[in-house]
Specification:
MetI-like fold
C-alpha cells in the first residue's frame, strides 16, 4: 500500500495550518483596527479565494508562478525555487484556498472581545503587540482554535487549485483528494472507497477534536 498521498496531505495540512494561524491572526488584527471602508475592502480581498472556484484560483496561481512569467522566473533564477509541479505548489495552493477560513474566524473572534479590555490595556501603556498576545488572543481562543482546525481540514481536502498548480505527481504532489479522483477515473472503486473512508475518519477526528477542545475551554 502506497501511503504517500496521505503523508503528503498531512504534511501539507500541517504546514498550511501553521502559516495560516500566524499570518491569519496578524492580518485579522490589522484589519480589525482599520476604519469601516478600508476594512470592508480588505476583508473582501482576503475572503475572495473562499468564494471563487478552486480551479479559477489555481489558474491564477499557475499564471503567477509560471516560469515563463516574471515572478516564477525570478524565483527560479534567483533562488532556484520552483512552485509549479512541486510540494511547494501544494502548500501554496492549499494556503490560498484555506487561509480565508483562518482569517475569518480570527477576525470574528476579535470582534467578540470586549473593547473595554483593549482600551484599558492601552491606557496602561501596553504595546499593540503585547495587547494582541496577552489580551486579545487568550480572549479569542475559541475562535482561533476553530479556525485552525477548519483550516487544517480544508487544506487536507484541497483538490482543484492543487491539481492546477502542483499537478498529480505520485509520491511528490499527489494528495488523497487527487488519488481518489485518479482511481475513480481508472475504475478502481475499491481503492477509491478505501481512501474515502480514510478521509472521512480524518474529518471526523478533526471535528471531534475541535468540539472536545472548545467544550473544555467553555467549562473554564
Amino acid at each position: 500500500m502506497d501511503w504517500s498521498p496521505l503523508i503528503i496531505s498531512l504534511k501539507t495540512g500541517i504546514v498550511v495550518t501553521a502559516l495560516s494561524f500566524f499570518i491569519g491572526i496578524w492580518t485579522a488584527w490589522k484589519v480589525y483596527g482599520k476604519n469601516s471602508s478600508i476594512k470592508c475592502l480588505t476583508d473582501s480581498l482576503l475572503t475572495l479565494p473562499m468564494v471563487i472556484p478552486p480551479t479559477a484560483a489555481g489558474f491564477i496561481l499557475l499564471l503567477v508562478f509560471s516560469t515563463r512569467r516574471p515572478i516564477g522566473s525570478f524565483l527560479l533564477n534567483t533562488f532556484d525555487i520552483k512552485v509549479i509541479q512541486s510540494w511547494l505548489g501544494c502548500i501554496t495552493a492549499a494556503f490560498v484556498i484555506s487561509f480565508p477560513l483562518m482569517y475569518r474566524n480570527a477576525r470574528a473572534a476579535f470582534e467578540q472581545v470586549d473593547k473595554d479590555i483593549i482600551y484599558a490595556a492601552r491606557t496602561l501603556g501596553m504595546s499593540e503587540y503585547k495587547i494582541l498576545v496577552k489580551v486579545v488572543i487568550p480572549a479569542a481562543a475559541h475562535g482561533l482554535i476553530s479556525g485552525s482546525i477548519l483550516t487544517f481540514a480544508r487544506a487536507m481536502g484541497e483538490y482543484g487549485a492543487t491539481s492546477m498548480l502542483a499537478g498529480n505527481i505520485s509520491g511528490k504532489t499527489a494528495t488523497v483528494s487527487q488519488k481518489i479522483a485518479m482511481v475513480v477515473q481508472d475504475g478502481n472503486y475499491s481503492a477509491a472507497g478505501f481512501w474515502v473512508v480514510v478521509v472521512i475518519l480524518i474529518a471526523f477526528t478533526v471535528i471531534l477534536l475541535m468540539n472536545t477542545v472548545l467544550s473544555r475551554l467553555m467549562r473554564r
